[in-house]
Amino acid sequence: MIQRVQTIYLLLAFICMVMLLFFPLFSVTTTYDSISVTGVFDSHGFSVAGVPTVDAEGMTFQKNENIEIPVWGVIISLALLTAASIMMYKKRKRQLMLCRLNFIFHIIIVIAFYSFFYLGQPMFVEAMQAQFLGEVDVTFNMGMGFFLLIPTIPFLYLAIRGIKNDEKLLQSIDRIR
Fold it and tell me: Is the separation of the CB atoms in 109 and 81 below 8 Å?
């Protein structure tokens, strides 16, 4: 019975997690003396678009700098856990356990990313001001990936409710026999 409603919810959660691999979570734009540098945080880490340096020859841009943070590993493992939950449609108790585990991990990941975004802003601004020894304008922008984190939680919750309803229905049928 793969055509149950919780399979649709799990599939939607899986699609959101896979799309998270391709969209950036947020970007940071730093402006100092009319020189602007943009960094993007996505599933592959934090990458800076081009760091300008000013010398006697004028302004030049260095190569891209990447800080590798293996967020993609966490995203892929959560997507695989969701796919495993879809494939466990014959064993509802295991499917329910996997969905609950996946739900807890998603909540932890969402809290981690949101706290990193909101609580990390003042620390980042202080670090940039110490680096440039002056007033630096720093703006943080949410990316599409930031908003893809949220729908997975209700989809997983609705899948858990659907699995519980199926289990209750089967238990009530067993009582009738």
Answer: no
State the pLDDT at residue 26.
85
Ranges in the chain, pLDDT < 50: 1
- Give the total number of structural domains in the chain: 1
Look up the pTM and report it: 0.79
Q: Quick one: pLDDT at residue 101?
A: 95
Percentages (nearest 5) of helix, strand, coil residues in the chain:
60, 20, 20
114 lies in which domain range?
Answer: 5-176
DSSP classification of residue 95: H
Tell me the CATH number at 146.
1.20.140
DSSP characters over 26-74: EEEEEEETTEEEEEEEETTEEEES--EEEETTEEEEPPPEEEE--HHHH
